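Weekly puzzle thread! Below is a chain. First person to post its structure in token form gets bragging rights.
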Amino acid sequence: MLLVFNLFILIAILAFGYVSYTQSSSLLVEEVVKSNYKYVEQARDNIDETLTSLDNLSYQVSLQSQIRRALYLSETTWDQDQLLFLDIIKYLKSVKLSNTLISDIWIQFYRYPIVINQESKYNLNYFYDDIYKTDKSSGWERPSPSHHGLNPIGRFQATTYGVSSSVITFERTVPLSEIKPMGGLYLNIKTDDFANRVQGASDPYPAFIYALDNNGEVVFNSKIRSDQDGLISSVKGAITEKVRGIGAREGYLEQTIAGHSYQILFTSSKVNDWTYISVVPTAFITEKANAIRQFTFVTAIICLIGGLIMSYFLINRIYSPISKIIGYINVLGRTPSNQNRTAKEDELGFIDRIINYVYYENESLRGSFEKNLPALRQKFLYDLIEGRVSSANVKELAKEIQLDFSYDSFQVIVFETVDFSLEDKIGLHNRDILEIVDGRIAQLEDAHINVRSIRKRNDKIISLLNLDHPNPKPEVIHDFISKVISYFKQEHSRTFTVGIGNIYSSVEEVPLSYVEALSALQYKIVKGEGSVIFVDEVGKMPESSFSYSIEAEKHIINCVKTGNRLALQQHLHKLWGDNLKQGDVTPEIITYLFQALVGTAIRTIYEVQSTTAEIFSDSIDLYREVNQQPRLEDKKEYIERMFQSISDWIHNKKQGQDNTLFNQIKDYVENNYHLDLSLTILGENIGLSPSYLSSIFKEVTGMNFVDYINTRRVEQAKIRLRQTQDTVVDISEQVGFTNSNTFIRVFKRHEGVTPGQFRQMYVKEDSK
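Winning reply:
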């Protein structure tokens, strides 16, 4: 048997050598073509991924609030807010610094002749004549007539601030919310950066790759690494003509140009109109094939001689000792019940079977452990933050499940999502969000921190930090949080509110840090969603703040919509009294209160489907106007005039088209509010169907049917509460409520206090 095996080995060596020698050239060409196709596909995918990332980035930039605000400025008002442009410059600089691919970024405004880049603001002509020059005209001064995404304009030799470089320029029109573009966002990417993404300078692969745009112009090409690459680069025009003549999106051809044969592969981009062409000289392949033939011949001879020597060695040096070992195993370890198996199994087969059995049992146990490892880690971390792990066994348990807890101190950070769920898809490849969070710590040098994160429901990520307490570095924790927040905001437009507990030196105190982090999160209502809140800050929060409840805002909005000037003034005067008491007011409270009231005005404008430009003017900025009022009384008067202007506009708009219908509704409700009213009853009395009346009621009156009826009933109830001594139950029946509990609930929702509290307030005022 061993002799037959040795003969088989020798014949196989000779056969392999013969086939390799005779077929090496054609086989190598086929393999090079296959690998070249994968190579150019990989290059295409790298560039497409880069272009997609740039498209997403440009879209995020176009949505930036300050840029959108600047786009709406006119030629007469753009120079009135220089701080706005300074903020845009800082933002563009941060975008450029965080994206190393971008060499230049600027915005051209169509409504006024201004260009802003990452360095400064320039006049349009000065920018393109002195700051940014190109080797050929691209018509920068002509605005794009219609919207488009991030499109390549072409390749230019651009000189920026005296530094010349070859770049590819991309343009996106902004903002998408308008029918026509109001500006253009431009990005420059150096052609060398694209070339490096296609093929490194030290890449030994022989292919020369370049890309064409839809006009057949070369956008970029891989770097010239040798004379062979230079030769291919010189015949790019002829190769391009052949490829474009085929008219296909991808393909392969062998072409002889100027006496040299080339293997040419081409494919098309999936995200734009670029075509990627890869060229390999056929001579390179044939040279390799000849070298392989020579090597194969020598190798076959060496293998033949080596095979003969190995056969002798196997027979005389290895097989005999193994045979003796198996004989001992048979004498000592085999029982009569194994006789049938040994008759059919030689000694080597027996050893092989035992080794395989042990190996597969071990692999099965290893696979089961690896499969359950994520669940074991998650369970361990949950136990840790909930206080079910002691210091005595924490390091041993962590080592068993391959967690690195090599330091002695712990801290808990809780990331709470803002307007998204952890179940949402993150990015194109749906990466694990916990891996992304934990991976940010690896970007910090000399951090001395280990991070492990787990989910808590669909809105929280709990990160457990294992720190080197003897060498604390608070700035590292700040950097870690900043990197997590900035990554999700820039890459995925996701925002977190962050609560941070204190650092503790024992495992048993980890739950305390967790509870502190949750407590810090509760103060997001004070600091706002998207804030980073340390538990130490909670005790330092200012005790005083302005008082402006949601209910008060609802009352003001309703008064503006209904034109109730008296009630509006009463609500505003109550706000002044609650927040602007002498000796208790600070500049911050004044600023925040009046900005909140401007926000109420803007929400009212949006609810009536209008804009500030339509009610006031294009150049007005309500926030700026109220901030510019020098005195407190001036601010009050401005707020009252602002709400009155909105109310007058609503009244004038409704008066022309809905005056008659509104009067009918108002008269009927005023006379019958104490009855059991419904849309059906109201419609029958004013001659409209209930369905139609329901669809236009809010547009005519400014609120829905139930709120309108309840508002009238509450107003009448307030009169009775002030002027009569009737009980709350009696008054609720008099104004049309069938249940006093319902009356109390509705009254409190409208006025912020119960009927009884309302009556007591006016009794106190009368006694004064």
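Puzzle host: Confirmed. Bonus trivia for everyone else. The first strand starts at residue 102 and ends at 109.
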